[in-house]
Structures are given as C-alpha cells and as structure tokens.
Amino acid sequence: MRRYLNILFLLTAILVAACSVEEKSHAEGEEATYTCPMHPQIVQNEPGTCPICFMDLVPVTQSGKENGELMLSESQIALGNIKTKRVKLGSVGSNSILTGKLVLDETQTDVISSRASGRIEKLYLKESGQTIKKGQPLYELYSEELLTLQREYLLALAQNRELGKENPRFASFLEAAKKKLILYGLTEGQIRNLARTGQVSPRITFVAPAGGVVTEVAAAEGQYVAEGGVLYRLGKLGKIWVEAELYPQEVANVKEGDEIKVSVEGFGQEPVAAKVTFISPEFRAGSQVAILRAELPNPNDQYLPGMQANVILPSDTGSSLTLPTDAVIRDEKGAHVWVQSGKDTFKARMVTLGEESADNVAILSGLKENDKVVVSGAYLLYSEFVLKKGADPMAGHQH
Predict the structure, then answer these.
(1) Blockwise average pLDDT, block size 10, the chain, 399 residues
(2) Are residues 186 and 277 in the same domain?
(3) DSSP-derived 3-state class of residue 49
(4) Domain with 383 in it: what CATH number?
(5) Helices first, then strands: H and E counts in the chain
(6) Contact at 8 Å (CB) between 208 and 135?
C-alpha cells in the first residue's frame, strides 16, 4: 500500500513540474522586448533608455510587431501633446465659407448711343471701369443737324414772344421745337441757356442719362458717328452680383432661391443677405467647380465690381459623427484618423468624409460612436509610424 502511494505521489509531482515548464515557456514566448522608437536596432529584454539618444525604450511584443499598431511611451505622448476624444453624434456646426467676387449685373446694362449724326469732338471718359453719375458730361458732338434744330427753336421762341398773345398756335410751335431738342438729348438747363443767350453752337455736350460703371468705350475722338451709333455701355450698380465657385460636394447644399450671407472685404458690418439666382448646370471647362451667382442689394452704390467677398452657405442641420478637422490626415489614398486601440497604443483607420467646415468635419463611415480618436498630434503619429515602420499606415487599404 505504501509503495502504491509513493508511486502516485511521484506521478503527481512530475505532472505539476511539466505544467510549470509549459507555462513558463508560454510566458517566455509572450514576454515583451524593449526597443528604441528612433533606433529600432536597439533591442533588450528589460526596460531602460536608448544608449544613442537616451529616449525611453518602449515594449514591443512578438505578436504585435506586424499588426499596424503604434505604441508610444508615456513621455512620448506627453511631449507630442497626443490627446484623444470620443467621437460623438452632432452637427458640423459651422457654415461653409466660399471666396467670391462682385461682378456687374448683366441684366442692368445701359447703352449710350449718339443722338444725332456728327463727329466726336471730345470724350470725357476714355477708359472702362470708371464710375459715373447721372448728369455727368460724357462726350461733345459736332452736328449740323443739332445746329439747325437750335435755330428752329430760337425762331419759334421769337415768334411766340411777338405773336403768341394774338395767336396761341405759336406757343404749340415753340413746345414742339423744345421737345425735339429734348428728344435729341439736350437737357432742360441747356435749352434755358439757349433761350437766354440766343447763341447757337454746333458743338453740344451730352451728359449721362443714368449712373453706373463704364463697361465699354466704343468710340474715339475725331470719329464720325451715325445717329444711334453706340458710344458707351454702362452697368448699373443698384443691384450687383456675387459669384463663387462650388465644389461637387457643395452643389447639393444650395439651390436657386436660397438666401445666403455675403461679407464684402473692407466693409466691417454684419454680412448682408443675398438671394441665389443661378447655379451653372455644368462644371467650368477644365475644372471640377460650378458657378454660384447671387443678387446683392446695393442701394448706395457702395459695392463696386471686382471687390472680394466671402459667401456663407447655410450649414446642414443633420446629425452625424463629427471630428475636428485637424484630426483627419489626407493623402492620395484618402483620409484616415488614428484610433486608440489600447493603453498607449494607436492604430490608423480609413474614414469617409462628409460635410466640412473650417473647424469640424462629418465622418460618414470608418468610425462608430465612442471610438477614442486622436484629435491632437495625429500628424506626429503618422510621421512616427512612417519613421519606425518604414511604411504608410494606409498601405494596402482600399478607400
């Protein structure tokens, strides 16, 4: 009996020893080694510092060498200002801002033509782009036809003064002669001056019938023009257009009739409202942008063509996963973020982006709510991965 118990005890001891050896071997297989992030040739079995750069060695397990993860020490995280944030549902929360430019309203264009045939003696405005006001002198015309009409008016005036009391018809003759001069472009002041002085002149100065901006000068001094010949083209400033370029992802966020806000450079007041009147149905040749046009009120003619403006599109009120813009790294393969996968361990993950503002961007796919994403120091992680692994963290990923 005693012999039987001794054999049983001996077998139990051998079994326990074998299990201990197996556990020790397994533990040794999973034992972490330590390496320097800057000098991966430095490898040892216990914590310490790098003999070259004196950085803290970081643990690297055999099973985690090729899993695409990046492990940093606590000092590296502190020095790199690596901060994480749990991704949540929300709104991008900011309007899209486009760079635009003010242009003339092409539907508000005036053509100034010669009222009579003759020769252009003088042009008061010789360059396009100049702003003029109503009643401002534009050109001086030599015309025998206008000289004849002035003489007819003075004759009718003299007859009316002498015979108008006896025969009312002379008053109607005078009125008809005056209307002719007005139709030919003379002003009331010029006609009164003609009646007062009684002096006719073949050279008549014509003034602007309306204010605006000279968009074209179609005549030159010394040129003979026919009645109705185009001399100037004017653009009115009562309303002005603002044009901006839309990228494909922005076209769906705005339509004709929408109200947008426009902030003109140099004017510090609050953005003013403008109405979208046109969105080009096709992209501009050689680019991937469409043209948005909005009508901007300009009651005091304070805005001029060529001024720069910011066009503020209304933001989407929908809810989606959002991240700060700086958390996203973009390259030719797409966009990715760094997600904390364990203690002091980070892994790159491909994402699909949605609406974007100056501060935030919507994440359409690649993340789920409550994932811990690096929002500060993402580019440092990217550089560290490339330096340590010698490869792009998104290599092999399909976007």
Answers:
(1) 47 44 42 68 82 78 54 86 88 72 86 90 89 89 92 91 82 90 89 90 89 87 92 87 84 83 81 88 74 88 86 70 88 86 89 80 89 90 77 60
(2) no
(3) strand
(4) 2.40.420.20
(5) 7, 26
(6) yes
Within a domain: residue 48?
no
Nearest to 34 by CA among 45, 21, 49: 45
Of 394, 375, 398, the C-alpha closest to 385 is 394
Angle at 134 between CA 131 and CA 138, to 5 degrees: 70
Residue 394 located in a structural domain: no
The range of the structural domain enclosing residue 129 comes to 114-231
Separation CA 153–CA 174 (nearest Å): 7
Is pTM beyond 0.90 here?
no
Which of 231, 252, 283 terminates a domain? The answer is 231
Domain count for the chain: 4
**Same domain assignment for residues 195 and 122:** yes
Taking phi over 0 as left and psi of -120 to 50 as alpha, with beta for the rest, 20 belongs to alpha
What was the pLDDT predicted at 41?
Answer: 67
